[in-house]
Amino acid sequence: MNFSKASEVEMVAWQMKEADFPRGINRARINDLLNGVPPYTAEEVERNHIAINVNFLGGTRLGHEARAQFNGNFLKPGKFFTGSTDMGPKHKRVTRSAIVTKEIAKLMKRSSVYYETFRTKFALLVAHGIGPSAWDKPDFWCPDGKGIEDVLIPANTLLTMKNLPFFALYSSYTGPELARLTRDRERSQEVGWNMELVDKCLEYIDSESTALMGTNWPEVWSPEKMAERVKGDGGFYAGDQVPTIDCFDFYFWDDDEKEEGWKRRIILDSWSTPSGVGQPMGWNSKVDFAKNQFLFNSKNRKVASKWSEIVSFQFADLSAVAPFRYHSVRSLGFLLYAVINLQNRLRCKFNEAIFESLMMYFRVKSMDEAERALKVELFNQGFIDETLQFIPAAERYQVNSQLVELGLQDHDRIINEHASSFTQSQKYGDKTEKTKFQVMAEIQAMTAMISAGLQQAYRYQEFEYREIFRRFCLTDARDPDINLFRARCQAQGVPANMLIPEAWNIEPERVLGAGNKTLEMAIAEQLMQFRNLYDPEPQRQILRDFTLAVTDDPGRTDTMVPEEPNRITDSVHDAQLAAGTLMLGLPVAMKTGMNHIEYVETLMVSMQVAIGRIQKRGGVPTPEELEGLDAMSQHITQHIQIVEQDKNEKERVANWQKSLAKLMNLVKAFQQRLEEQQKSQQGNGANGEDAELAAKVKATQVMADAKAANTRESHAQRTAQRQVQFELEQKREDARLQRELVRDAARHKLETQKEHLSHAQEMIHKQDEHALDVAAEKIKQKQKMKSTEE
Predict the structure, then answer these.
(1) What average pLDDT does range 695-714 have in this prediction?
(2) At CA 678, angle to CA 673 and CA 679, rounded to 5?
(3) Assuming Cys at both sites, which of 164, 439, 575, 772 could form a disulfide with 602, CB separation 3.0 to 4.6 Å?
(4) Is 566 exposed, middle or buried (0-12, 13-18, 19+ CB in 10 A)?
(5) What is the pLDDT of residues 401-431, one digit of tens each?
(6) Helices within 512-595 (DSSP H only)
(7) In the chain, what is the straight-line distance between the N-terminal and C-terminal CA atoms, in Å?
(8) Positive or negative: CA dihedral 321, 322, 327, 332
(9) Which of 467, 506, 481, 475 is nearest to 304 (CA)?
(10) Rounded distance between C-alpha atoms, residue 288 and residue 275, angstroms
């Protein structure tokens, strides 16, 4: 169906609206419960003479705790998600991923609109299990939270949206909002606005605002000035009394053309708009919005390739029946509505009984006695007519307080058990000191219940993050945040051709313990105990997690434990080792997959240091030093040739070549000085030195060189042996630690089972004692009743 007529869209939209009405009634009841509305209606209070009608805010407290759990999961980290890429040189991927993640998080965290979108979704997830949001513009990154009643979905739609044929978003626009939406209609994304109908809508708002506010502008009959006034006096047109333009923003899937995708239609809500059925609008306006007109019509143009580019859904579904459907979602508010409402009513009756027990009753036989009873003044001293008789407590109706307390406690238990998926369980009254293993066992049991709603929300939020990232990658966007993000990334070395969504993987940022503070601290402390067994990089991440768990402040955490400290990379470390090896005249093999830029720069610095030392000695090196410097120069040249293949690094390569040429000029000067010194020494020996002494000196030098070579070789062997021995010892230590961890885990398991058995036996014993007490109490009551009858 192509929906070429507005009447077709109107019929489908209102069918979904009417089908959603019964669901809306249930949602209103849940909202009232969470908002603190009393449990009895005004009719019930009057009909049943109810004295106390109070909402004791159990559901309100539960809703706040559940939203705090969501806040801890999604808003506590310093970033919403982490972007990683497998595109480009391997040694640049980590740096570019960090840049993109940091810049996009900076803009998203500063957005108050996105913060409110999250708050809207959290509240809806707790109350109704569905948190929708939508984008009203194709090139802005931030979505707006939508009410469930404003998102119309057909019946039997799966949560996967696989069978979603169409949907509608109900929207209300003020005059300035409608003007902003249509002012860029010349852009290709916005082609389709019916400007004649838009102008009529603005004229209607202007005339109604003039009548309602009692304002009389002289240019009211000048359409050009009217349009400028709508833009300039936007605050006036956003008042509570000013009417809005209510619309159905309708989207449907169309695969009739060569390109599949979603098309868009917008129609006026004729049931809510007074003029929708041709009736006069306002007091003095006769403007008629002709029916069967589109406010917006994309015609055959596809506005989106996927529904996720238009609307986003987050679910916290506790339904037990599969396949899971949109209109079968069962939320925390839905499942606990009955028991919380019952708890409120029970507490109202309980408090009525308390007030009733505080009243003083008299037994009278006539109205005269009743009047005398009303005149009795009970103070410190007084007289009472002998015809008046007090009714003692034993003769009055007695509330079974134990049964009432048992009912209240049982309701609280049911609420806490079923809310443990969203809130942190708290147990009071247990003052017994527990061991560490007992606490961990309770935390593990609590973890099994927490994941029900939160893990779903994590997964569905990932889809929204992907769409937001796709929008940040747009090249021709009106959103200034998108343009600023791209400019900052490119200024830090991220190529423009990498800012495409297909090149990036988006992973939502998660906190320890799934938002549960107790569990988070327990996991962080456990990781800190074994922190020294991890590599340096995981050690820093563990320290960051622990600091965030303690402070709950991502800004302070970044200050105290920076995410990317100044550390020695593998490429720098390899270059430092290679410099020493090359100076000894030994070969160094080429290694692939490293950061060649860092490697070359480190070797250049090492070469400068070696040359500086020779200059401090007078500028005359040893033959071995000359060979080492020459080998280092050749090795650097090989890596420069690899970097030279990147056309973007031409300037860097040219600077390296210039610096290396200067260093090699110094090396050539060293070689000339060494040759001159050797010639001078040979000349002095021929002029006066004894040839035999010169031969002995030469022999001694040869022996010294041989000894030095042997020493180097033996040192290398000893070093290799020590390395092998160290590795063997490290493996043995690792194996020992692994055995200890296995033993500790087994011991912990046995102790946990023992504690469970002990707890179970104790519970059985208490149940037996309680049963005996109940039986004894029944016997006493029977005896008492028997004695009373006698």
Answers:
(1) 59
(2) 100
(3) 575
(4) exposed
(5) 776 677 667 667 666 655 554 444 444 445 4
(6) 517-529, 536-551, 554-560, 570-583
(7) 87
(8) positive
(9) 467
(10) 6
CA distances to 297, 627, 660, 663, 696 from 612, in Å: 75, 16, 14, 10, 33
Q: The whole model's pTM is what?
A: 0.65
Q: Which residues contact 86 (CB under 8 A, 6 or more apart)?
A: 93, 503, 505
Rounded mean pLDDT of 372-394?
A: 59
- φ and ψ of 534, to 5 deg: -90, 165
Q: Which two tokens stand for residue 581?
A: 């090896």
Amino acid identity at 733: E
Percentage, residues of the chain above pLDDT 70? 72
Q: In sequence order, what E strands does 213-282 have?
A: 245-254, 261-268
Look at 200 and 765; give whichever has higher pLDDT.
Answer: 200
Q: Which of 180-189, 253-262, 527-536, 551-560 has the highest mean pLDDT?
A: 253-262
CB count in 10 Å sphere of residue 475: 11
| Residues linked to residue 160 through DSSP beta bridges, in sequence order | none
Give the model's confidence band at 44: pLDDT under 50 very low, under 70 low, under 90 confident, else very high: very high
Query: Which of these, 333, 307, 337, lies nearest to 318 by C-alpha position?
Result: 333
Alpha carbons 458 and 451: distance in angstroms, whole number = 10
State the average pLDDT over residues 47-68. 87
**216: pLDDT confidence band, cut at 50, 70 and 90?**
very low
Q: CA nearest 206: which of 178, 172, 165?
A: 178
Q: What is the C-alpha separation between 777 and 789, in angstroms, rounded?
A: 18
Query: What count of other Cβ atoms lies within 10 Å of the Cβ of residue 218?
Result: 7
Nearest Cα to 301, choosing from 558, 77, 2?
2
Q: Contact 308/12 with Cβ under 8 angstroms?
A: no
Residue 529 has pLDDT above 60, yes or no: yes
Closest to 597 in 3D by CA, of 89, 100, 57:
89
pLDDT of residue 13: 92
Contact 37, 340 (CB under 8 A): no
pLDDT digits (tens, 9 = 90+) for 632-680: 888 899 888 888 887 778 888 888 899 989 888 888 888 888 888 777 7
Do residues 165 and 252 make contact, with C-beta atoms less than 8 angstroms apart?
Answer: yes
Which amino acid is it at 532?
N
Where is 343: in which H helix or E strand? helix 332-357
Mean pLDDT, rounded, for 87-99: 84
**pLDDT tens, position by position, 321-364:** 889 999 999 888 898 898 889 888 888 888 887 777 776 666 66
pLDDT in tens, 122-162: 999 989 999 999 998 889 999 999 999 999 999 999 999 99
Strand partners, 145: 133
> Which pLDDT value is given to residue 452?
60
Q: Decide: helix, strand or coil at residue 131.
A: strand
| Dist CA 744 CA 742 (whole Å) | 5
What is the DSSP annotation of 22-55? HHHHHHHHHHHHHTT--SS-HHHHHHHT-S----
Element (H, E) at 313: strand 311-315
Spatial distance between the Cα atoms of 105 and 507, rounded to a whole number of angstroms? 13
Residue 604 one-letter amino acid: M
3-state secondary structure string across 61-79? HHHHHHHHHHHHHHCCCCC
- Short-list 241, 254, 236, CA closest to 165: 254
**In this structure, how many other beta carbons lie within 10 angstroms of the beta carbon of residue 608?**
14
Task: Give the residue with greater pLDDT, 415 vs 107.
Answer: 107
DSSP state letters, 115-126: HHHHHHHHHHHH
Nearest to 234 by CA among 178, 169, 273: 178
Tokens at 353, concatenated: 């009984």
Contact 152, 170 (CB under 8 A): yes
